[in-house]
Specification:
The structure is a homodimer of 405-residue chains. Chain A folds into two domains: 139 residues, Alpha-Beta Complex (Aspartate Aminotransferase, domain 1), CATH 3.90.1150; 251 residues, 3-Layer(aba) Sandwich (Aspartate Aminotransferase, domain 2). Chain A is 36% helix and 15% strand. In chain A, a hairpin with a 5-residue loop joins strand 13 and strand 14.
Chain lengths: 405, 405
């Protein structure tokens, strides 16, 4: 008789953003006239830039013509895109990452959750607390953790690294050496960044101990300060200990278009085994590539026109972040992030729990945010707002919040 | 220290189609003038139909406009697409599959390889021999099999069901009861079909034993005979024992566009546990949906215009299949499949092994096919050709093959 993977039963409740969506839908159904401002899920609102829609139209025409039609994509992704990524995201920053070390995919979420498959089930993982839930949940599903401890709100067997106002939301190196270390900077949910010397300490630690850093750089495009690394490969030695994930979702508004990539240096090893061939095998066996038209869209963000338009879009979101951050501060809230990231991390009002504050904002202000506790127990009492709304909605949200503050 | 998933090391050589691609590339580089006819990998060659390119252009315009832009898709896929699938692929055939039981994805390959994750590692799997390699390889990677036995060319712990000319390439129910049964009809690679009464026996067997059938119906659109089921849910009781995978790749030439879906009935259980919530959780945690524009493209194949154009495309490929089948037969080859499927399954020439015949065809005839042994030891001495080339190339391939037959 068939049996299920019982590790799934360890997962408490539903996936955070699905849970939020359900709550908001319920509220909307009961209050059909409500004018809800959504600053919850990290979804963009600005339309695709003209360079991208032009590339898409062109590629669609190619696909409709027998002479230029393309079927299955190459396993790693089209060379035109991998070359553009290697040149623009790496070589231009002095990082020696070749096109063959880049695996194009349908997004960083898939890659961040699938990467654990190429590691043994006996690896210990370390994550920040609070943390993007996908890193932990994908390891729970695989059986790489113990049960969920309701009291601690943590899974047994996972090394949690608290990120608090006290450490500037940058984790300290843990006492116990983890095998796999998930780091995301600029951080989701706190909006914090790691300076280059801070990240270098992690690289040195991983090299010394044979750990692998799984570096999620999905928010790299929002970095506005010069001493914040855009890639972990800016740190010497990172090729020996790090895998990097990048996304077009936040950089260029591809959340509904789906494109990302993962970098695995060819010489990167876990113990004596190279990781590149394992990921190549996984990619070839379990995946069939991102759509040709979307890969062309990705290439277009690296053209002169595309780069200028992307910069404009990011600047717009960072303006929203400033509006929200400053507005919250002037309303008396304690506020973090928002300078090199699209996320604003705030303390809740009057000592409310994160979910109490969620309900308060939804019901009293018709604003949707994300409860900090949904990202881990160290996020309790915090709340995440995103800068991905429109400027108008960012201003209106602040006006509503100030209404009775 | 990080360690790898050593199950990957059990996999012999590289993924079949990657291996073929490498061999063909090497030959092309050494023979730059060679006029190679590719009838190997099951990739389509006809351009996207006008109904689809029109839908894509419209959707791209929507994505470039702030008023109509769409970010993250709903977890299960857009309702407009799931409704179209439910109505056209199921309700029209008397199958009671609701839109909420349909999970839209980037293709059947991903789903077929990921589905095993929601089952326990102690489940035994049964596959046809020969078989599409993804079913077995994904289970090897997960650790659900033993080592590879070089002599037998089979993984220990897997139940292989030989499909031979003797049983019409339809497997017999095995003595040992498997927990998970992978079936693919119309079959890849043999092109064989199961009649409804044959499939019903499998459904009855699975229900009686608590097994789950994982039914890959990717080639359903090629069925031309009336007593061949298009969906396993045409069999009574299948909702209690079957998951079905469907693809837009072969139906409408989406190999480079990426779209498929999986059906999990809400009441389907493994033992006492429902499977739908597990797959929903996986979808929500590890995946972010197929692109909006591609989901609109999928919807377009169900319009009157789209259906007519799809029918025309399929008819063209089936014409190729007939040209190849009849040509091979008149050249003295033993030939199967090709009537309800885009695949022609043939005996090699003069007792050659499958890979010998591959090399012979590549080097002497500049034709690329797929060695039958790549699909399993029962495929040794067989070879797969696809009808997905152009009509011109199908005719030219047969002319070349007849050249010295």
């Amino acid at each position: 008789m068939a049996t299920i993977n019982r590790n799934y039963l360890k997962l408490p409740g539903s996936y955070l953003f699905s849970m939020i969506a359900k709550k908001v839908n319920e509220y909307s159904e009961m209050n059909p006239g409500a004018d809800i401002i959504r600053l919850g899920i990290g979804d963009v609102t600005k339309p695709l830039i003209p360079a991208v829609t032009k590339a898409l139209h062109n590629a669609v025409d190619e696909m409709g013509n027998a002479e230029t039609f393309r079927g299955y994509a190459p396993d790693l992704g089209y060379e035109f895109l991998r070359n553009a990524i290697s040149d623009n995201d790496y070589k231009s920053r002095g990082c020696d990452i070749s096109p063959d070390e880049i695996f194009v995919s349908d997004g960083a979420k898939s890659d961040c959750s699938n990467i654990q498959e190429i590691f043994g089930l006996d690896n210990t993982i370390a994550v920040c607390d609070p943390v993007y839930p996908v890193y932990v949940d994908s390891n729970v599903m695989a059986g790489r953790t113990g049960d969920y401890d309701e009291a601690l709100q943590r899974f047994k067997g996972v090394i949690y690294m608290p990120c608090t106002a006290g450490n500037g939301f940058v984790p300290e190196i843990p006492d116990e050496v983890p095998d796999l270390i998930y780091l995301c900077f600029p951080n989701n949910p706190t909006g914090a960044v790691m300076k280059k010397d801070q990240l270098r300490e992690w690289v040195d630690f991983a090299r010394k101990n044979g750990s692998i850093i799984l570096y999620d750089a999905a928010y790299e495009a929002f970095i506005s300060e010069s001493d914040v690394p855009h890639s972990i490969y800016e740190c010497e030695g990172a090729r020996e200990c790090a895998i990097e994930f990048k996304s077009f979702s936040k950089t260029a508004g591809f959340t509904g278009l789906r494109l990302g990539y993962t970098v695995i240096p060819k010489d990167l090893k876990a113990g004596t085994e190279r990781l590149w061939p394992l990921w190549e095998r996984r990619h070839g066996t379990k995946y069939n590539g991102a759509p040709y038209i979307v890969q062309r869209a990705g290439e277009a963000i690296y053209s002169d026109e595309g780069r200028a338009q992307v910069r404009g879009q990011i600047a717009g979101y960072l303006e929203n972040a400033a509006i929200i951050s400053e507005g919250l501060m002037s309303a008396g809230y304690e506020v973090y992030g928002g300078a090199n990231a699209p996320y604003i991390w705030m303390k809740t009002k009057d000592g409310m729990t994160s979910w109490e504050f969620f309900d308060y904002l939804l019901k009293e202000k018709q604003i949707v945010g994300t409860p900090g506790s949904g990202f881990g127990p160290a996020g309790e009492g915090y709340f995440r707002l995103t800068a991905f709304g429109t400027k108008e909605n960012s201003i209106r949200a602040i006006d509503r919040l100030k209404g009775d503050s």
